[in-house]
Amino acid sequence: MPERLRQEAEQLDATDPLASFRDAFVLPEGVVAYLDGNSLGRPLARTRDRIGSFVADEWGERLIRAWDEKWMDQPLVLGDQLGRVVLGAAAGQTTVADSTTVLLYKLLRAAVDASPERTEIVADTENFPTDRFLVESVAAERDLTVRWISPDPAAGVTVDQVREAVSARTAVVLLSHVAYKSAYVADLPAITAAAHEVGALVLWDLCHSAGAVELALDADDVDLAVGCSYKYLNGGPGAPAFAYVAERLQERLAQPITGWMGHAEPFAMGGDYEPAKGMRRFISGTPPILGMLPLADMLDLVEEAGMPAVRAKSVLLTAYAIRVSEELLAPLGVTVASPADPDRRGSHVLLEHDAMREVVAGLWQRGVIPDFRPPRGLRAGLSPLSTSFTEVLVALGHVHDLLTETSESGTSDERKQNP
Amino acid sequence: MPERLRQEAEQLDATDPLASFRDAFVLPEGVVAYLDGNSLGRPLARTRDRIGSFVADEWGERLIRAWDEKWMDQPLVLGDQLGRVVLGAAAGQTTVADSTTVLLYKLLRAAVDASPERTEIVADTENFPTDRFLVESVAAERDLTVRWISPDPAAGVTVDQVREAVSARTAVVLLSHVAYKSAYVADLPAITAAAHEVGALVLWDLCHSAGAVELALDADDVDLAVGCSYKYLNGGPGAPAFAYVAERLQERLAQPITGWMGHAEPFAMGGDYEPAKGMRRFISGTPPILGMLPLADMLDLVEEAGMPAVRAKSVLLTAYAIRVSEELLAPLGVTVASPADPDRRGSHVLLEHDAMREVVAGLWQRGVIPDFRPPRGLRAGLSPLSTSFTEVLVALGHVHDLLTETSESGTSDERKQNP
C-alpha cells in the first residue's frame, strides 16, 4: 500500500467537516469496511437506543390513540421533511408509504390512466429490473407500447435519446436519476423539459439519489418521483419508500389501489371511494409506522448536515475511490466503469474485473462489504455520512490483496495442473 | 356494580389457563382497560426488549449479508409459521408482505385476470371500506360488474345469499370471514363450496379472524386469503399483512405488481419478468424486515398457547362481555349487535347506544380504550392472550358510569332549558 494514499486518506478524514457524523452510526468492530450503504445503509445509534421505548411508550401506552395523536399524519409529516431536506420539494407533495415497487406501480398507473389517448411508455433497457418489469406489466394491462432506450455506455441515458423517443404518443417517461450499476447521473432538468415539450409526464426513480445527490424537484418542474429509504436514508431492511407528486398534478391523478387510508374521510367508513385531497390520495393501506422510525432519525441527521455538504463529501469519496483504484488496482486489470466527471456521478463506483465475483466473496469473509453486480462488477457504495476515506482505502487495499492472491494461486494451480 | 359480576370476573381469571400469557405484554399503568386489540394489538415485552438488539446486531453488524443469511426467506418462513399456527395451512402457501390493501388488490387482480371470460365480482355491502373500494376499482379497470350482497342484519352474509349471487359469470367472491362491525362469522366452508360449484374463486379477508378464530384454510379448500397482522397478531402499527394462495392455484395465478423480489432469480437482474415458483411470486418489493419482528414474537406466543385454547378463551371473553352488558348496560338502553351464538361470533362485541360517540370519548379520557364505530357502536375487541375478564368488567363498568352521568346531565340540561 503506497504511503501517499494512506496519508491522503488520513488528511481527507482530518479535514472532513462531516467526519463526526460517522459516530452517530452503529459501527461494530467485526465490520472492517462497509461499502454497501447504497444497498442497505447502516443503522443510527439513536435508532437502536430509542426503538425499544417507541414500542413500550408510543405503541404500548398510547396504543390506538396514537393514530389520532400522531400516526395518521406521519406519512405526510415525514414526507414533508424528506421533501424539504432531500428532494427540494415544498410541503404537501411527498408521502412515505409501501415499497418502491408498489409506489412505482401506482404512479405509473396514475400517469398512463390520466392520458388514455397516449399509447406509449418510454423507458431504458439498463434500468433496475423492477422498473423494467413494471413498465412491461403496466403496458400489457393497459394495452400500451414500450419504447425502449439503450443508454449510451459512455454517457447513460442522454437528453438526445429521450428527445428521439418521446412524441405526442408518450404518456410517461420512466428513468432512474442515478443508474444503479454505473452511477451515471441523468440530466434530470433537461430530460424533464424534453418530455414536457411533447406533453408527456416524467416519473423519476430516485433510489440511488435520495440522500446522496442534491435534488430540486420543484425547481426542475418534475412531475412524479419515487425512491427507497433503505439506502442513503438508512431506513432499515425493507423500510417504506416515498413518492412525490407535483401539486399541480395531484387532483388530475388517481391511483388504482384504493384503500381506506387514501380516502377523503377514512373513518367515515362510507359508501364510494372518494380520494383524499392532496398527497393522501396516493396512500393505500395502513401506514407502516414502526418501519418509519429509523428514517425519521436519519432525516434529522441529514437535515443537520445539509444536503450540499453531503453531496460535497460524496464527490470527494467517489473521486478518492477512483484515484485509489487507478493507482492500486488498475495495474491488476481493474477498470472504473463509472463516470470520471463528478457532476455526472452518483455516490457509488463500479469497478470491473473478471475475477470480481470471487474477490467480493473473499472480501465478505474479511468483513469488507461491497456488493457484486453481475457479470463482473464490484459496486462500492459510499454513504457520505457513514463512510470514511480510510474505510475506502482499507477496502480497496483488500481488493488489491485478493486480486494478487487470486492471480498467484491461479498461477500456482496452473503449475500443479501443468507441471 | 353487582358483586356477582365482580366475583365471576375474578373466578374466570383465576381459572383461565391462558391467564399468565397476559404478563408477556407491555401493560402500562395509565391504560386502565384496553378493548381495542382488534384495531391495534398491544406490544409484547419481548419485542420491546429485543428490537434494539435487532437494530444493533442483525441489521447493524450483519448488514447486507443478512439478506443472504436470513431475510430473503423471512416473508415465507414467517408465512409458513403463520400458516401452521394460525391459518391451518401447510407450508409454501403463505407470505408476509405489503399491507392488507395492496395484497387484496394483487389477489383480486390475480383472480379476475385468471378467468377473463368471467365478468362478475361478488362482494357484500357491509364489508370493510377498503374491500369495497378495491372491488369497485378492479371492476372498473377490468370492465367487470359487481354483484353486491346485502348481509342479513341478523345473520351476516349467508350461504343462501352467496348461492343466489354466484353463477358461471363469477370470477371471484370477496368476503370477510368475521364482519368488522358486527363480528358475525361467515360460514366459510359452505360459502367456499358454493362458489366452487359454479367454478368461482373465493378470496377471504381474515383481518378480524387471524389470531382469534380457528381457521382451517387447507381443509376448507380455500383459494385465496389475506389478513393483517396488527390486530390479534400484535404486529404493531401498520405491520405487514399476509396472503395465502392455495398451492393448486399458484402456477395459474399472476399478480400485476411485478417487482424484483417476486422474480424467479432476483439477483440475476435479467431481462424479462419471470415469476418465481410458489408463493414468492406474490411478493413485489423488498420485504419489510424490521416491521416483521413483532409479528415473529407474537407467532411464537400463539404457537405456545395453541389456537384452540386461544379461541376457547375468546368465546368466554365475548360471552362474559355480553352477559355484563345485558345485566349492567341493557337497563340503560344498550343493545348487543353481535351474535348470541358463540359459533357465529368473532372476538369482538358491538354495543349500540345513541350516546356511544360521547361515551367512547369519555372512556378514552379515563384510560379505558375501546373504539367507536359509526353511527352508534362501541366495539369491544377482546384479544384472547392480552385481555383479562376483570379488564372487560372494569371497562363496561365505566360505560355504565358514563351513561348514567350522561343521562343525568342530559336531564339536568333539559331542566335548565325547560324550567
UniProtKB/TrEMBL annotation, chains A, B:
Cofactors demanded by this protein: pyridoxal 5'-phosphate
Keyword Hydrolase attached: yes
GO cellular component: cytoplasm
One Pfam family named in its UniProt record: Cys_Met_Meta_PP
Biological or metabolic pathway of the protein: Amino-acid degradation; L-kynurenine degradation; L-alanine and anthranilate from L-kynurenine: step 1/1; Cofactor biosynthesis; NAD(+) biosynthesis; quinolinate from L-kynurenine: step 2/3
Top enzyme category: hydrolase
Keywords: Hydrolase, Pyridine nucleotide biosynthesis, Pyridoxal phosphate
Function: Catalyzes the cleavage of L-kynurenine (L-Kyn) and L-3-hydroxykynurenine (L-3OHKyn) into anthranilic acid (AA) and 3-hydroxyanthranilic acid (3-OHAA), respectively.
NCBIfam families reported for this sequence: kynureninase (TIGR01814)
Protein name: Kynureninase
Species annotation: Nocardioides jishulii
Lineage: Bacteria, Bacillati, Actinomycetota, Actinomycetes, Propionibacteriales
